[in-house]
Design brief:
With 202 residues, the protein is mainly beta. It has strands spanning 4-7, 11-13, 16-18, 24-26, 29-35, 39-41, 44-46, 52-54, 57-64, 67-69, 72-76, 79-81, 84-91, 97-101, 104-109, 119-130, 137-141, 144-149, 151-154, 170-173, 179-184, 189-191.
Length: 202
């Protein structure tokens, strides 16, 4: 898809508005602009579990009111591999919170007993991110804006087998271990915002 302008008020993406479980998006190109609502992505706005996006390229101006990613707005354990992202990202005046990333604005990783890699071998060339000054809650990074990792397994060595399963101890690990080999090839410039020019993320 080239020279395209996509607009909407909800979940808006350049290739798909939203994807379901185990969707495969491969070798797609989106060039143009996307003006959406809460969830905006250069390829898709949101995903379900075990989706795959690979060998895709976006070169777009992305505008939204909350969660924006160069590939995907909110990712629910989607595997994103060998993608190239160019363009710029802008939060509009309706924004009250910023979750903005060059690949994904938000990653949800609430799966147990897994060490799956969810981002691998991607290149990001996002130069401009614009956030209104009134937005005080900001999760902004050139790779992933915000990740909510609740990645755990049972602490098998310390289980009291007389207790119900809900009381078994757990070992938690950061979702960051599931992000590999993403490369940033341009400097980030943040406009109209009370944040430093260096990356911030949570």
């Amino acid at each position: 898809v080239t020279n395209s302008s996509v607009t909407g008020t909800g979940n808006v993406g350049g290739i798909a508005g939203q994807t379901a479980t185990s969707t495969l998006i491969k070798a797609c190109l989106f060039e143009g602009s996307i003006d959406g609502g809460v969830e905006v992505g250069g390829i898709t706005s949101t995903s379900a579990s075990d989706d795959k996006i690979s060998n895709c390229h976006t070169n777009a101006t992305l505008i939204g009111s909350s969660t924006i990613g160069g590939i995907i707005g909110t990712s629910d354990r989607t595997y994103i591999n060998n993608c190239f992202v160019e363009g710029e990202i802008t939060l509009n005046d309706n924004a009250v919170e910023a979750r903005v990333g060059g690949i994904a604005g938000q990653i949800n990783y609430n799966y147990q007993d897994t060490v799956d890699i969810v981002l691998n071998n991607n290149i990001i060339d996002i130069a401009n991110i614009t956030i209104p000054k009134k937005v005080t809650t900001r999760y902004v990074h050139r790779v992933v804006g915000h990740s909510s990792g609740d990645n755990w397994e049972y602490d098998w060595d310390n289980i009291d087998w007389s207790q119900p399963q809900s009381q078994w101890p757990r070992l938690y690990q950061s979702a960051d271990r599931c992000l590999r080999n993403s490369y940033i090839i341009s400097d980030l410039t943040a406009f109209d915002a009370n944040i430093a020019l260096t990356d911030t993320t949570t």
